[in-house]
Amino acid sequence: MLHQVRTQLRRVRPGRWSQRLSGVSPGLRRGVSLVMVLAIIASMVTVAIWPAPTSASLTNVLYNGGFEQGFSSQPGCGMVGSGWQCFTNGGGANYGFYDDQWDRVVAEGKHSQLLELNTKGIMLGDADRYAGIYQTVPVV
């Protein structure tokens, strides 16, 4: 790699450099040359390690990612986006899964998934309750 850099630097016509830097000390000339070489090497390394886009990065692997393809009722949860599964950790809490159509909370389209977790009407609700949705997708 160093050989390639030297070859490219020879093509730059070093005579022009010496004319521009003729009144400058040799140490400063070496310093400028070193900075130029390091800049070229850094740019070559950056180009070499830059990730190339793959076809997988352009593919949407989620089904119904925007929740516009409808909802279905799932036992123990409620209305969950089609293609999605629900989960909770049970315990003393009320869980609700809904098709939310309120404009203020829908980021894109007309639907979003609303998850509710509350202890209303439960005398001693359990702490650390959670709920969510997930989807298993092929990654091959």
Question: Can you walk me through this structure?
Answer:
This protein is an alpha+beta fold and 140 residues long. It folds into two domains: 2-49, no CATH class; 71-134, no CATH class. It has three helices and six strands; from the N terminus they run αααββββββ. It has helices spanning 2-10, 14-20, 26-49, and strands spanning 71-74, 78-81, 85-88, 94-100, 112-118, 131-134.
Summary of the model, kept short:
The chain has 140 residues and is of the alpha+beta class. It has two domains: 48 residues, no CATH class; 64 residues, no CATH class.
Give the count of structural domains.
2
Radius of gyration, rounded? 31 Å
Termini separation comes to 35 Å
Query: Mind summarizing the main beta sheet?
Result: 2 strands, antiparallel
Order of helices and strands: HHHEEEEEE
Inertia-based shape? elongated
Average pLDDT, rounded to a whole number, is 85
Number of strands: 6
Strand percentage lies at 15-25%
The structural class is alpha+beta
Specify the number of helices: 3
State the helicity in percent bands.
Answer: 25-40%
Unreliable residue stretches? none
Q: What is the strand arrangement across the widest sheet?
A: 1-2
